[in-house]
From TrEMBL:
Pfam families: Epimerase (PF01370)
Domain NAD-dependent epimerase/dehydratase: 5-242
InterPro entries listed in its UniProt record: Epimerase_deHydtase, NAD(P)-bd_dom_sf, NAD(P)_epim/dehydratase
Gene Ontology MF annotations: L-threonine 3-dehydrogenase activity
Entry's family note: Belongs to the NAD(P)-dependent epimerase/dehydratase family.
GO biological process, one term: L-threonine catabolic process
Protein name: NAD-dependent epimerase/dehydratase family protein
Amino acid sequence: MHRPILIIGACGQIGTELTMELREKYGNEKVIASDIREGGDALMGSGPFELLDATNYAAIEDVVMHYEIDEVYLMAAMLSATAEKFPMRAWNLNMSSLFNVLNLAKEGKISKIFWPSSIAVFGPNTPKEDTAQSTIMEPSTVYGISKQSGERWCEYYFKKYGVDVRSVRYPGLISWKTMPGGGTTDYAVEIYHEALKKGQYESFLAKGTKLPMMYMDDAIRATIDLMESPSEKIKVRSSYNLAGMSFTPEEIAESIQNHIPDFTISYAPDFRQQIADSWPSSIDDSAAKEQWGWEPKFNLDQTTFEMLNNLKK
Ligand SMILES: NC(=O)c1ccc[n+]([C@@H]2O[C@H](COP(=O)([O-])OP(=O)(O)OC[C@H]3O[C@@H](n4cnc5c(N)ncnc54)[C@H](O)[C@@H]3O)[C@@H](O)[C@H]2O)c1
């Protein structure tokens, strides 16, 4: 019998699908969803939900005690593009929510944490192709600075206090169930919606901008596999590199044209181009593969097939 799980930030792009998958796996009543706002019907209707502010330690502690929570997945954060507009709010949310959960574990009130990092921990001086697990990390965005600091604190809490915290550096995530929440890779979701609605898309990233991406099913499977792995296999306690595919806006457009031949793409790069230019093009995830058996399943064409078929319904 799995002990109860709390998901903080459950109504977002990842949290929604993660909650549904964990409920399927461990039972609806075992997975408590929480957020500062209500979520979609499927999530709200399938199990317990609590309105909860991730920056409020006492409120999280109350929920943890009430449901006898054992594991926390912390998905609440301000994402890259939005964080550039509200730097201090992003820093406060991203760091205080993490400290709240780390400190609950330090005090023995929960036993395991999942906290996601991002490819945004890398910066303009990082080698761009096949970016290694350990390399130069000089993030130039507020979001990246918060994720890199978070990684350092996770490793510190593991080494110093034995906190069982696990993390992956998600690439840009592509999904059809929930819209993305203000990231630099959101174009790779919007493009499918617009392809079906209008037959054309204006990309906010320029031609040639190659970024690491992943289909949501792979991301959810990686997350749960990492959390279910025996502790001794998890050698990296900052955050694991994780790769699915890498592509440019023109490559995703070509992949869509295989299904919608008249689809066209145009380019009008905005402030997000600078963020994208500071990130890697492809990621070396051999540590995750070797240590806990990670293997991606979806390439670009499979992702396009899934996205268009599901969005058409
Ligand atoms: N989606 C991606 O492509 C991607 C890539 C890399 C890393 N990540 C990371 O994964 C995590 C989840 O990302 P996402 O894409 O689902 O984000 P999202 O913006 O879609 O969802 C975040 C959720 O957190 C909630 N939230 C915001 N402030 C809160 C607060 N104070 N208390 C409680 N909830 C709050 C929001 O209401 C939202 O439902 C984040 O840490 C993000 O940095 C995401």
